[in-house]
Write a structure and sequence with these properties.
disordered N terminus, two-stranded antiparallel sheet, mainly alpha
């Protein structure tokens, strides 16, 4: 019996057999050679191709991420990162959070006590100067305040140390504190340490920070600093005076001493004696170091910038500042960044236009001259690339100065008088002239590559139809060269907006760009946070112009040739 859809006994398989099967009520899936459904086989093959392609580009992708994307991301993160305050003054920040500047002019004694402990650790780790430099960006003078205080902070708590030792000489023995605070794991590791490699990390004994929380915390810092910074054994070093200051605070606030706590009797005797101790005014001691510690502005600044992340750098980049009362404008004599951003955009645009005016005729000559002359002219265009950028810029400094070659030539031919020489250096004019010369090849090459593809017969055809030379150029030739102008303009503008070497040398104070300020903060003032914020804003501006260009002209219309 013959099947309605399959091959019959007489004709066998015919060209329409597959069509009949496909049109049947219940067609089966199309199978690959290995018997799997064709769709599944195709998906599997495509996945293999994608994996193979990914493996081929993986080395380059990893290289770009490690050497380009990650460093840029790390740098941009600095524009909001502000962890140095909280990391350097953790105790102070916690206590200072409860201070209301509207209620009391200065924070209470607990804040100064916490500052003494934090400053002791910071001074030993040499972090107090870094913190001072960070806060000095916001309020001038704080850097010297922290530097001066770091030298004298070790004396705070000395009176308590002497009174504890007078009460019982055991308080002078480092082993007393080891018995109370060192954990058994650290004791075993420290006993086995043979001097090779890093010392075992100090660990607190269980429950020590519950009984004497402040003392345990500062002693742990003491032990860590002694091990890491001094490479010594805490069991052989007498604790800082700040440890005795914390011990006094714990005992005077009524710490509960368990009977099984190490040296419980010694602690109980000290706790009974501390009410009779001569107290130390930590706030007055800080004021003796520097009277600025009694300045509310210092404490308001520390409180304002104690958060791990801040918008302060971006506000500074916009000539604003973050104050305890909110966002405010910076003093008028400090508002420079908005001016620099506007100047950078205006001068970059002027440089781009100058390159278009000078580069267009040269590109036309390159595209239309005979090969011999065109090759010679191309060598002259590329010649600046063979000369150091610094040499070229320095040459312009010699040419543009008041007694330079250009002014001497103008005086010689009578264009200007000897007393009326042109100011061409240390201003915007010098920057535009020098940067136009340096960036001109970046405009010429895209123009030439596009113009080379425009057939000369188009102009001849336009003229044969009655067009003048100008009409043929403007209506026929110029529209076809616009993609080259677009490509060259993007190259020149983006390079110009981030330039800093040439403006630094020939720009003076009136011709520098925002990039010069970014370079200054990175290499001189070391304010990397502000530099990152300025760089991020500049990046956003460039992307905004790129987006606008794409919307108006279309990035697909930009051609480098072909």
């Amino acid at each position: 019996m013959t099947s309605a859809t399959g091959p019959d006994d007489l004709t066998g398989v015919t060209p329409d057999t597959g069509l009949k099967i496909a049109q049947s009520d219940k067609p089966g899936p199309m199978l690959a050679a290995d018997g799997t459904p064709l769709k599944t086989s195709l998906h599997r093959a495509l996945r293999r191709q994608k994996r193979r392609a990914l493996m081929l580009i993986a080395p380059l992708l990893i290289f770009i991420i490690v050497t380009f994307i990650y460093p840029i991301g790390e740098m941009l993160f600095r524009s909001v990162e502000n962890q140095i305050v909280g990391d350097t003054l953790p105790r102070t920040v916690r206590v200072l959070a409860d201070w209301n500047p509207d209620e009391t002019e200065l924070p209470g004694p607990p804040v100064y006590t916490a500052l003494a402990k934090d400053m002791m650790v910071a001074a030993e780790e040499k972090n107090h100067t870094r913190l001072g430099s960070r806060l000095n960006y916001e309020v001038s003078g704080i850097s010297s305040l922290f530097r001066k205080s770091g030298r004298d902070v070790e004396d705070i708590g000395e009176g308590y140390a002497e009174q504890f030792v007078t009460l019982d000489p055991a308080w002078e023995d480092p082993q007393t504190f080891i018995d109370m605070f060192a954990g058994p794991r650290w004791l075993d590791a420290n006993a086995d340490y043979d001097g090779e490699g890093a010392r075992p990390t100090f660990r607190l004994a269980g429950g020590a920070d519950d009984v004497l929380p402040q003392t345990a915390g500062i002693y742990r810092d003491f032990a860590r600093v002694v091990q890491v910074e001094d490479d010594d054994n805490p069991a052989e070093e007498q604790p800082w005076n700040a440890v005795y200051l914390a011990l006094y605070d714990d005992l005077s606030t009524g710490a509960a001493i368990p009977d099984d706590f190490p040296h419980a009797a010694l602690l109980s005797a000290a706790q009974a004696a501390v009410p009779g101790f001569a107290t130390e005014d930590v706030q007055a001691t800080f004021a003796e170091m520097d009277k600025s510690w009694n300045d509310p502005e210092v404490w308001r600044t520390i409180q304002t910038y104690s958060a791990p992340y801040t918008a302060g750098y971006f506000l500074n980049a916009a000539d604003l500042q973050l104050t305890p009362d909110g966002i405010a404008q910076r003093p008028e004599n400090e508002r420079i960044y908005a001016t620099l951003f506007v100047r950078t955009l205006i001068m970059s645009t002027a440089i781009t236009l100058s390159c278009i005016l000078l580069g267009y005729p040269i590109g036309w000559l390159l595209a239309n001259l005979p090969s011999r002359q065109a090759n010679l002219l191309m060598i002259l265009v590329l010649l600046p690339f063979w000369t150091s950028l610094l040499v070229r810029t320095s040459a312009w400094k010699v040419l543009l100065q008041d007694q330079g070659v250009i002014n001497d030539l103008l005086v010689w031919i009578g264009v200007v008088s000897d007393g009326g020489r042109l100011a061409l250096i240390n201003n915007a004019t010098g920057t535009i002239i020098a940067m136009t010369h340096i960036l001109l090849p970046f405009m010429i090459l895209p123009l030439y590559s596009v113009m080379k593809t425009i057939p000369p017969s188009y102009l001849r055809a336009a003229k044969s139809l009655g067009a003048t030379n100008w009409t043929a150029f403007w209506r026929v030739y110029f529209p076809q060269s616009v993609p080259g102008i677009g490509a060259g303009s993007i190259l020149v503008f983006i390079i110009a907006i981030g330039y800093y070497i040439t403006p630094e040398i020939v720009g003076g104070t009136k011709g520098v760009f925002i990039s010069n300020r970014i370079a200054y903060h990175i290499s001189t003032s070391l304010n990397w946070g502000l530099a990152a914020a300025l760089g991020a804003i500049l990046l956003v501006i460039v992307l905004a112009f790129y987006w606008a260009y794409d919307r108006i002209v279309g990035i697909d219309n930009v051609k480098l040739g072909g």
